[in-house]
Amino acid sequence: MLANPFVRQTIELVDTEADSAAVNRLLAAAVISNGFRNALLVDPRKAVEMGFAGECFEMSSKSLAVLMSIRAGSLREFAQQVHEKLPSYLSTAM
Fold it and tell me: Which residues contact 4 (CB under 8 A, 6 or more apart)?
């Protein structure tokens, strides 16, 4: 994060490739693991923080906030909302 001394506003730089890769790995983990999928649907923040099989899902706070806002009953619904809610620059990189 960078702070501009003139406006005192914190700016977060988003690595769109890293965020896109993390979201793709997160969805792949949810496809192969019922337990991780259920955790993701119940509490996305906790699922991201705990990771899966040694895999970490590091992403920007903006992408994490989007994932945390998703309420879905199935992985299909979750993935659809990811596609709809994540900024278009991330969706095109996926």
Answer: 11
